[in-house]
Amino acid sequence: MTDIAEIKPSIDVRLVPPPERHPRIFGMLNALLPGGSMLITSDHDPRPLHYHLETNFSGMFGWEYLEQGPEVWRVEIARMKDAGCECSCGGDH
């Protein structure tokens, strides 16, 4: 039996229309509690998303490639436990 604590939210953006991808991903990221993580599956390197997170939310999220193409890319994004900022994101303030 799978422990429910091991189940991570995930999104396969190959199945999502392009204009809806980032809004859905950011909705999921916003729902992550500090220390939580989610999985993204894509048909291309989601490097622009990584750059956006690093530029706009520096230090709030960890990024780990689980699979790097050429046909499938899988990434785990984690909300850092010590993420602190001036918003209502759920970070430790």
Q: Mind explaining what this structure looks like?
A:
The protein has 93 residues and is an alpha+beta fold. It has a single domain, classed as Translation Initiation Factor IF3, CATH 3.30.110. It is built from 2 helices and 4 strands; from the N terminus they run βαβαββ. A 4-stranded mixed β-sheet has the order 1-2-4-3, with helices on one face. β3 and β4 (73-79) form a beta hairpin. It is globular. The N and C termini lie far apart (37 Å). 16% of the residues are buried. It comes from Rhizobium terricola. Residues 11-79 form the DUF2249 domain. This is DUF2249 domain-containing protein.
Topology of helices and strands:
Blueprint: E1 10-12, H1 18-31, E2 37-42, H2 47-56, E3 61-68, E4 73-79
Parallel strand pairs: 1-2
Antiparallel strand pairs: 2-4, 3-4
Could you tell me the mean pLDDT? 88
Oligomeric state of this protein: single chain
Shape: globular
Number of helices: 2
Main beta-sheet strand count, sense and barrel state: 4 strands, mixed
Brief summary of the model shown:
By secondary structure, the chain is α+β, with helices and mostly antiparallel strands. The protein contains two helices and four strands.
Short descriptors:
93 residues; alpha+beta; Translation Initiation Factor IF3; four-stranded mixed beta sheet; globular
